[in-house]
Amino acid sequence: MAERNPPQVKSAATSYCCWKEEPMRKQKYNILYERLSRDDGEDSVSNSIKNQRAMLEEYAQRNGLVPFLHVQDDGFSGTNWNRPGWQEVLTRVEAGEVAGIVVKDLSRMSRDYLRAGLDREFFREKNVRLIALNDGIDTMLKEDDFTPFREIMAEWYARDTSRKIKSAYAAKGNSGKPMSNQTPYGYIKDPSDKNRWLVDPEAALVVKRIFTMAIDGMGPWSIAEKLHDEMVECPAYYLGTRGIGPRKGNYDKEHPFGWNYSTVGAMLSRLEYCGHTVNFKGEVSHFKDKRWKRNPPEMWKVFEDTHEAIVSPETFVTVQRLRETVRRPNNKGEANPLTGIIYCADCGRKMYNKRHGNSDYYTCQTHKIGANKFAELCTPHHIKSSAVRDIILDALQRTSGYIREHETEFVELVRDKTTFLHGESVKSNKKQIAKNERRIAELDTLIVSIYEDKVKGVLPEGRFVIMSGGYEREQAELKKQTVEMQTALDHYTEDTENAEKFIGLVRRFTGFDELTTVMLNELVDKVIVHEGEWSEGVSPATKRGMGTRRQHVEVFLKYIGDMSVPDLRTPEEIEAEYAAIAKAEKRLTQLRENRRRFVAGEAKKRTKPA
C-alpha cells in the first residue's frame, strides 16, 4: 500500500520495514495520496493512479516535501470511508508519523463533505499540513473559506454520477439484458456477446444432479454432504481454477470439495436455471451506502427464455414446493417423502407425521394442536403411511395403464372433465367467435353512421335513440357471448396441454411396480384425507370405533387433478376382487364377534361369586 521515495526501497512491504530500521525513524514524513474509481467517468484518464503519482511526486521533490510515502486506493469510490489506503493515512496521522498530506484535489480525499470536514479538523488538531494542488489549498499558508463548498460540490458530483449509473443499469435491466456482471455456476459468457449466457457442460451436469437429488427428497445439507463425499469440485474452486468470474485468485485451494449447504440452497432457488433472466433482485439504496439489499420477489423483473435452460420449469416448481415443507428425519436420518402433500379434508392443513418404532402414520395437525390445548379443533383423520402409499401407487398404476392403452381417449377424458366442448363444438365455437367479431365491427360502423345522420338532421332524434339503443344492446350481447366462448376454448386448450404434460411425465418412468420418492414428487400434487367412518359406530362406553373403518382418500395428480380413468379389467376380474373383499370382511366380522364373546365370558367369570 505504501512506498517510500526511491532509491531507498522498491516495494510497499520493504518500505515499511526499512523505514522502521532507519536511525531517523522518529522523523515525520509526507504522504502522497492517490485514489481512482469508476465514479470518475470521463476523467479517469487524467485521474489515473500513474498521472496522480507523477504529479504529486514532482511537486513534493520541487518543494522539499521529503521524505515521502505513496499511499493509494485503486478502484475505491470517494463515498467509501473504509478504503484501506485512507485508513492507513488516518492511522499514521493518529500515531504522529505524518507532517503533511498531498492530494491532487479534495475529491481524491473524499466525496462526502461531512466526513471530509471531520478529517480536515482532525488534521488541524494533529498539526498535519494538507495540500490540494488543483484546488490551490495549503493549510500552512492560509485558511480557504471556499474549501467546504468544494467538498459539497465533490459530493454533488458523486451523487449525480450515482444517479446516472443507476439510470444506465435500470435501462439495461428493463431491456432484458442481465444486470449481473457474473454468470451463475453452470453458465459462461459468450465470448462474442457478454450479455449472452452459454451453458457450461461440465458444471451444468452438477446443477442438474443437485435438482435431481432435491426431487429425490434430499435437503441442501444432505446434497452438500454427498457432493463432498463424491469429491465434486465446489463452485468457488471450479471457477477459480479455470479463471472464470471473480474467483480467479480468491478461492480455498486446500478444500476443493468444500460444498456448503447455503450454496446448494441458493442454487436450488435460482430461476435463471430455467432459462430466464431475473433483474432487480436487489439494489444499493443510497450512493453513500454500498451495502446490497435484496428486493422482495414482487419487485423482480423476469424475462423468459433468454438463454438455454439447465432444468425444466416443472422441475424447478416441484423443488420449490418441496423446500416449503420442513421434513423431520427419523433415527436413520430419513424423512418421510409423503410429508407436505397430505392434507386434512376438513381444516385444509398439512397433516403431521408421527413415527416411533414400527408405527408410521399421519394425523391432522389442527387436531394435534387442539389436543395440546385440551380443545377439539378438528378430528384426527388418522391414516397409516403405508395405506397412503398403496392408494397413490394404485392411482398411478391405473392412470398410467390407461394412458399406455388409450392415450387419445385419456386426453378427451381430461378435456371433458372441465369443459363441455368436444371436437366439433370447438370448430363451431371458433366460427361463431369470428362471426361475432365481424358483426361487432359492423355495429360500430352503423352507430357512427346514424350519429352523423342525426347531426346532419337526416335522422330524427327519437329514431336515433331507438336505433342506437338496439345496436348497443346487440353489441353487448355479442361481446358477452364471445367472451364465454373464448373462455371455453382457452380451457379446452389448457386441458389439452395439461394432459400432454402429464403423459410426458408418465413416459419418464419405465414402470410403476414400486412407489419411489421421485415418482411421488413429480407425479402427485396432493392427497386429501377424509375422516374415517366405523361400520358399527363408536362405543359410548369406551369411545372406540367398532366394526370396519373405511376412509375416503382423494389423490390429485399433476396437471389432471383427481380424475378417475375407466377400469380396464374384465367384469370377471372386478367381480373376483369384490368377492375377495367381501370374504375378508366376513372373516373380520367373525373374528370381532369371537373376541366379544371371549371378553364377555372372561368378565362373567370374574364377577361370579365364589
Overview of this protein structure:
The protein is α+β, with helices and mostly antiparallel strands. It has four domains: 2-161, Rossmann fold (3-Layer(aba) Sandwich), CATH 3.40.50.1390; 187-323, Hect, E3 ligase catalytic domain fold; 382-568, no CATH class; 574-610. Helix content is 49%, strand content 14%. The protein is built from 18 helices and 20 strands. Helix 2 links the parallel strand 2 and strand 3 (68-74). It is extended, with a radius of gyration of 39 Å. It starts with a strand and ends with a helix. The model is unreliable at 3-25 (pLDDT under 50).
Which terms summarize this structure?
alpha+beta, three-stranded mixed sheet, single chain, 610 residues, 4 domains, six-stranded mixed sheet, Rossmann fold, 49% helix, Hect, E3 ligase catalytic domain fold
**Terminal-residue CA separation:** 105 Å
Largest sheet: 6 strands, mixed
Structural class: alpha+beta
What is the count of helical runs? Answer: 18
In short:
It is built from 18 helices and 20 strands.
Give a topology summary.
Blueprint lengths: L1 E3 L7 H10 L7 E8 L12 H14 L5 E7 L9 H11 L3 E6 L2 H4 L3 H13 L3 E4 L4 E2 L8 H28 L12 E4 L2 E7 L1 H15 L4 H10 L5 H7 L19 H8 L8 E3 L2 E2 L9 E2 L6 E3 L9 H11 L18 E3 L6 E6 L2 E6 H8 L10 E2 H21 L1 H12 L4 H34 L4 H47 L9 H7 E6 L3 E2 L14 E2 L2 E5 L13 H37 L3
Helix pairs in contact: 5-6, 7-11, 8-10, 13-14, 14-16, 15-16
